[in-house]
Amino acid sequence: MIDLETLIILIVTATIMLIILTYLEFRKKPKKPEYITKELLECIKCNYRLEQDFEPGDFISMYKRKCPRCGGLMKIKAIYAVEKSFKHHI
Amino acid sequence: MDNIDWPTLIFQMIWIFLLILLFTGGNQKIQMKLWSIDIRNKLKIIRKYLEDDQRKIENYMRNLGMDAPSILVKRIINYFTIEPVDIEPTDIIKRMDHLIQTSERTIKKIIADQLPDVGVYERSLVETGLAIISVINSIYKVVLHYLLTSEKEHNWVLLMQLQLIMPQILRLVETYHESLDPFLHGKPIGDTAGAYVAYRLVEEGEIISHKIVEDTSIFEVRLDDRRIYVIKAKGPGSNVGRPGIVLAQLVEELKGNVDLVITVDAALKLEGEKRGEIAEGVGAAIGDPGPEKIAIERATTKYGIPLKALVIKMGLDDAINAMKKEIYEACERTYEYVRKLIKEMTKPSSTVIVAGIGNTIGVP
Known about the structure:
The structure holds 2 protein chains of 2 kinds. Chain A folds into 2 domains: 1-30; 35-83. In chain A, 28% of the residues lie in helices and 32% in strands. Chain A is an alpha+beta fold. The longest helix of chain A has 25 residues, at 4-28. The mean pLDDT of chain A is 87. Chain B is of the alpha/beta class. Chain B is built from 11 helices and 7 strands. The interface between A and B is medium-sized, with 21 and 27 residues.
């Protein structure tokens, strides 16, 4: 014989366990990292390197801007994506 | 009524209800309904991706000057190519090549007719963008077909299999959905790895000659005291070219006087393998349906030329999305590896062919 109080306790316990399991299941899902595309510029004269955000239409080997150090032309050396939060070195 | 033990009665009722469900197959119907709801929810996500991507590409084409891009989108995303008959294998490669080329040329012509004042670069981005939408549309239609069929036939095994595979399908669709952005902006993707390595050889070497055959660039370069022919798709648009056919033609032009052929490509990694890992092997590293690969194999076999393959490992999401820094670094390592391999396997004054396989988007 099960009394009403025990039945309610059973149902409440089962509900709490379900909620905890659902929460743990959702927490397990790893977050997808966000990426941002950068381009690496290199001066053809003094080899000075500079990293900046990618602009649509840019491509590797394109002459982009003047070198802030020597005034020579800077060529796009590489285009790559890096993690948004990731601190990287050139 | 006062003597009724309600909790026990409720328990008994639940048990009887469960038994009835079990014997009448009702539990299966409930399970089928749950699976069906889950698949429909995921299908809604796929539909949303499809509509978003369609809108993006239509806006892109509108910006290029097209008045009614939706008609073109509808036409291209339902375009299909029927595979050649394979129970009679004679000439299958020729037939397959013919069908692939007809299909590609037709799509290019349809787009060129609709966008006559637009450059080859932008048109190539539109072509690839439409190809991506076409893939998502096909997946959506196939999944919907199996869902409706299994519901109609009450086929719970089919529905269960579909529900189990849905997370994988959704991930695949997400990958294609995310790849539209790099293609519409002209960013190099992971698959550009082979073309980038080829470009680096051209950049470092002394260019003797350059010609373009069938959307494929052939550079004759002098590097490390060797004559190196570098083959890659013509860039910087979204293009894979015809490296296999062009390589075979080049070998014939050189009358087989080639000391080494190296193919460089991106390869799908196995789960557990590291992104950007380099592997060396023998054979033609090219992932086409057949005609390009067989052309390389036949040409090198005819003249007994060693055929080496270098691959850069990556996942599908890396391969068709903006090139990640790890892959760029792997490309630089592969470039050094190619030079080392050439020095190891050939003597000075030798003739070598290096084919950088893959989409050359963002690389000239």
